[in-house]
Every structure is written in C-alpha cells, then in structure tokens.
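re: that chain from earlier
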Amino acid sequence: MRVCISRKPVEGPWGGGNLFVKGMTSLLKSKGHEVFYELVPNLDYIIMIDPRPSNYGVDANQIFNYRLQNPKTKVLHRINECDMRKSTEGLDRILLTCANLSDEVVFISSWLQDYFIKRGYAKDSSVIYNGCDTKDFTFKEQKDLSEIHLVTHHWSNNILKGYDFYKEIDDICVENNWKFTFIGRFNEKIQTKNIQMIGPLTGKELAEKIKLGNVYVTASKWEPCGMHHIEAAACGLPILYHEDGGGINEGCERYGESFSDIEEFKSKIKLLVENYDDYREKIKNVNLSIDNCCESYYKIMVG
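^ sequence. v structure.
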C-alpha cells in the first residue's frame, strides 16, 4: 500500500498523536508499505490525524479535495480531540463533518465515541486506545513506599489539566511531608509551596523521572484519552485520577482509584497504598504498547 499520514513526525516532548505517527510509520514500513506525509499520486490510504491546517502536514480540505480526484483512496480518521477538552468552540463541528466524509473512523476512547454520538455522529466506528513506547516506559519491579512520592506530567498548561487541584494536593503533601514532582509546563497562575518542577521531557529521560515516584496522580478533566497515565502505568505506578477524567478513566479504573474532591483524594490514596501490590499486579495484565495500538489500526486498513 501507499499510505499518507497527515502529520509529519517530530522530535521532542509531543503528545500521543506524534507517538502514534511514529509507531504507525514504523509498522507500515516493516510490512513493506510506502509511507508519505504529503498527498503524492496513487495513494491507497490516508490516515487523518488532525483535520486542521498545520505546518507539519496536510489538512482536511486538501485530503478530501484529493479524494474527489482519486475516489478509490480511502480515508481513516483518528479522532483524539473535542471542544470539551480545552473549552474551545467549533472543533466538534469540524471533526463531525470530517468523520462523516471518512471511510473509517477511530475514536481513542469509548468516552469520546459516546461524546460524538450524542452530538449526532451515527456511522460505524471503532475504539482503539493509545499506547506508549514500552521500550522506554518499562515496569519498575521494586517500589519503596516508606515515603509517598506523587508524580504527574502534562505538556499543556490549560487549567482543565487539573492545576487548581494540584494546588490542593500540594498543601496535603506539605502537611504530610510527602513529595510531589510535576514534569512539563506548569500553569504559572497557580501558586504552589513545595511541588518540584521539572521541564518537559520525553522518552527514557521522562520514564526515569516518572519512576522516581511511587503513586501517579492526574486531575485532568474531559480528556479524550491522554498519554500521561498510560506512560505512568507502564512504569508500574498505580494511578489516582479525577472522576471527570473522560477517556482517562477507561484505563485507570483497572489499576487505580478515582476521586471527586480533596477529601476523597485523601481516603483513596490511603486505600491505594494499603493495596499497592494488587494494583501493580493488575498493570502487568494490560497491554500498554504503541505497537499493539498500531496493529489494531492496521487490521482495520487491511480488512
């Protein structure tokens, strides 16, 4: 097959879409297929990562104009966004329009699939969860619980990532002499007392910092799926997650506990610590690999 992926891979600390592009490129090439990041002649498939214009690839208008001239070319639309995620407007409409024009539609969580069904999407679709590079994010067998060390990481500083809640957790850590490490871009409007700040990292360097912690926390809301909790689980950290986490919850509920407010957070962290080994054992039974994720997409493409 000749396949166009609508976004070019980039280096550095980017999100799950970029990791998917890299993983899908590797998989397709390993199976003898040609991969492009532009609309070259005689394409068999176009994988649309994001319909919006970008300096890193082609947009929906270019893709569907191409298909008007090449009706045999199929379009697979991977939907990993929504307006609710960052309180934006207009993105849902664009995604719905593109979904209805695509041959195959994949949502990155059941929560996101249901979100768009409620907004009028009525065609067939699939759900495939994100995966991470399990060569970098490896399960750390030994974990010391003599001191609670919370860790989280985000590339966006949008308030819905949970920064207001991290301020409250920071206060609890000060009271209990716990550690709390934040990796990524912190929201500067939130004042904290004792959170250790580390700038954006990726790959093995990020994995090693995550492994310094023993409990992962995410207060992010309305995530279509996210990558941060997947990378943390792959490193062997049980997860405390917000009950309004959106697609995040579909993975975390298997090896963590949810909370709705700071008082419930206190009780859930106690429960998690008391049953720590059980949560970690559950993580071992889940395939969190980007390779597994990409294989699922490939099966759709080849029928």
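The mean pLDDT is 95.
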